[in-house]
Amino acid sequence: MNIAALALMVTFGVMTGAVLHTNGVMPHRSLSQHIAKSPRTILFGKIGLTLGGVFFLLALLGYVASKYQLGAWFVGVVSLASILGTVTGYVPYDMSKRQDLVHNVCSYGYVALNPVILFMVFLALPDGYLRVSYGVGLVVQLIMITLLVFFRFARKYFLFGQIIFLSTFALLLIAT
Q1: What percent of the chain lies above the pLDDT cut of 70?
Q2: How far apart are CA 68 and CA 72, in angstroms?
Q3: 170 band by pLDDT with thresholds 50, 70 and 90
Q4: Three-class SS state of 37
Q5: Distance, CA of 22 to CA of 119 (rounded, Å)
Q6: Res 94: pLDDT
Q7: pTM tops 0.90
Q8: Cα-only R_g, the chain
Q9: Which residue among 38, 130, 133, 172 sits deepest, i.e. has the most Cβ atoms within 10 Å of its Cβ?
């Protein structure tokens, strides 16, 4: 079991729970929009996304990369995704147009790299249940991206789609 991935999932869950408990659940809003609602939840985001970035690196570079001998490309993609995800916590959404642009580039960049990382791990895995699970997880993430980007009705539930997307990633890492 990937303990760092479990810590990533717990950190994400606690941060999300604290933010939603503080501000209430608005399904059509993103987690970033929920975080940006108050100084307290912005602090939750900074702490959660910083810890999440560290656990993300430990889970992928400290455990997965060494276990499956993934190379320099993997290290680069994972490092970039970690930086992008962490920066979103320090550049809260809905503060200014410039800050929103930086936040969006970082958050959507992180989202785009998630399936790439899963695919790189998928290719390195031996045949078996874990590889099949990664394939299913990759499909789930791509469906979530497609629904939220191209189908307006799905955006009514953006928060839930985002939680499914991120949880799928973390659960696969835990199982690795």
Answers
A1: 100
A2: 13
A3: very high
A4: coil
A5: 36
A6: 84
A7: yes
A8: 16
A9: 172
